[in-house]
Write a structure and sequence with these properties.
Number of helices: 4
Radius of gyration: 19 Å
Number of domains: 2
CATH superfamily of the largest domain: Gcn5-related N-acetyltransferase (GNAT)
CATH architecture of the largest domain: 3-Layer(aba) Sandwich
Helix content: 25-40%
Number of strands: 6
Distance between the termini: 51 Å
Largest sheet: 6 strands, mixed
Structural class: alpha+beta
CATH topology of the largest domain: Aminopeptidase
Shape: globular
């Protein structure tokens, strides 16, 4: 076996894309579910957008439904819109839409300094924790049965 090792300490999108493509090919060969997920229309996006009176974006949720799950990718509201019930309303809307699309469970990740307690109030449970990531905090994976 002939090879050499190079070290590149700069961002290298071409190499990152190469690795990502190789992992995708491996996953498609070894997982029928993963392969199915790559078919057109298998991933169903949901975007719930909140706008102010001037039509400027002030928050919302971005999620994907696949494999019977809804995965919340991004969920944010501008400070002035928080603690007024908007987040709960958005999460309820997302869950209803996701269920219509066949989701039975929800998945998300959050940092301790973000919204862990908010999600717990809405029935999410911690299934994984990475302590001291970032230092002094924790990173959580949370799930909920819809």
């Amino acid at each position: 076996m002939d090879y050499h090792i190079d070290i590149d300490l700069d961002a290298n999108k071409e190499f990152a894309d190469f690795l990502s493509n190789q992992i995708t090919a491996f996953n498609m060969e070894h997982s029928a579910h993963y392969k199915e997920n790559r078919k057109k229309g298998a991933v169903q996006p949901i975007n719930i957008i909140v706008c102010d009176s001037k039509e400027a974006w002030v928050g919302g949720i971005n999620a994907d439904v696949y494999w019977g799950w809804v995965e919340i990718n991004n969920f944010w509201c501008k400070d002035t819109y928080r603690n007024k019930g908007l987040g709960s309303l958005l999460l309820d809307k997302l869950e209803a839409i996701a269920k219509e699309k066949g989701a039975e469970k929800a998945l998300l990740t959050t940092f301790e300094f973000q919204a862990r307690s908010f999600y717990e109030k809405h029935g999410f449970q911690i299934v994984g924790e990475i302590k001291d990531y970032p230092p002094g905090s924790s990173y959580y994976t949370m799930v909920k049965h819809l």
